[in-house]
Amino acid sequence: MGSTPDFGRRDLIKRSAALGLVAVPSISMLTACASGGDDDGNKVDKGKKSDKNPLAVNESAALDVVIFDGGFGQKYAKDAEAEYAKAYPKTDGKIKHSATQKIQTVLQPRFNGGTPPDLIDNSGAEQMDFGTLVAKNQLTDLTPLLDAPSVDDPSKKVRDTLRPGVVEMGQFDGKPVWILYYAYTVYGVWYSKTNLEKLDAEYPETWDDMLKVCEKAKKKGVAGWTYPGKFPYYMPFSLYPFIAKIGGPETLTAIDNLEPNAWKHPAVKAAFEAYYELYKKGYILKGSPGLTHIESQTAWTEGKALFIPNGSWVENEAKKTTPDNFQMAVSAPSSLDSGDKMPFGTIWASGGEPFIVPKAAKNPEGGMELLRIMLGEKSTKNFVKQVSSLTSLNGGTDGLTLPPGLASAQEALKKAGDNVVNPRLQDWYVALQKQQIGVGALGEMMAGRMTPAEAIKKIQKFADDTAKDDAVKKYKHA
């Protein structure tokens, strides 16, 4: 398909129409969390509400925080906890900070026992399923936090300082907000400007040019792409906006809404076949199906592959292996052809690093107050400097010199304008997105063990089964 002209690609889509978008081992492992309940007798007494303490935090109560120990590390959270202790000196020495990569394994027993932490960074491969947590009434509504004054400007509510879409992402059914996404992630195709320059190439804005660049790299002994085959749900970071670009944002809306035959849309077929072409032409780094996210990122920073689907946390996560002259950058997906419904630059960007306050937490006001502090300009700038990522605070980078990857992400957002998509599968249906679509189909297709048609058929069945499963709470775009 690499040499197929624009009209040929579009005709292929029309013909196919006639035949016709974020980890968890299992949702069932989490359902027991419902037994945790909400015993108000376990909660600390509220403090006195004031201008300096708008959430009525108990100024001497302990605070229990669990952070996902991933690409962002945990120092940013510890620094915010230090600010919390400064604001409430009687809590100094009473803040318990824990970090783990095994969020579900560590926290499920605590939910079951009714003793969850006060604040959780629910992220990573063992991320707890949000749909289940919301459906089982396990989370605190964060509306009081959002309606509290900002730490920087008391005349503004916290909600009015956030980037567009962040509040809505935390809503599942109605007005309550269950999740606060702290980071603001730009997803897409990541590359090294330096390594493209070595090939006398620029980022390809069309798929035909993408294939030409990959072929040029192959002749030099360099792979076009790599990806974390052990965690193939990274593929949608560039694949989903590619689908939306080809078929329009409504294609992702239908997929999120679990509509019948949503995955059979011709734009999905075209996108899958384009990605499969990378495998067929030998443009995927050998061994990629067996790589973790760290191993694939390391191969990429070592120059063994040009492109990798990822999120903006990668700059910090791959920092130790990234050469000084790498010039890390991100781009939106290439255009399939001139018939795409959305322009080049269409990208996936949304809140990331989801924080929750359990309903059974002993000190939920303290958990929300720590989040309020984190959403201040001081903590935001500290986060940006430490981990090369934006936060959900709208701004917070003034006066900072941004590293190459983050500067590129900002530029990509600016270029996208209103053409930003935000697929919800990864937070509405975690098991479907990660295990079934990612591991069960996309991973198989990219390894050459399944054709695009087979992958689409399998994914559609996974989606249909989820839609029919009464045990899974359903969500839809408004």
TrEMBL record:
Record localization: Cell envelope
Q: Which UniProt keywords apply?
A: Signal, Transport
Matches recorded under InterPro entries: Bact_solute-bd_prot1, Chitin_NgcE, SBP, TAT_signal
Q: What protein family does this chain belong to?
A: Belongs to the bacterial solute-binding protein 1 family.
Name recorded for this polypeptide: N-acetylglucosamine/diacetylchitobiose ABC transporter substrate-binding protein
Q: Which organism is it from?
A: Streptomyces lonegramiae
Q: Which gene encodes it?
A: ngcE
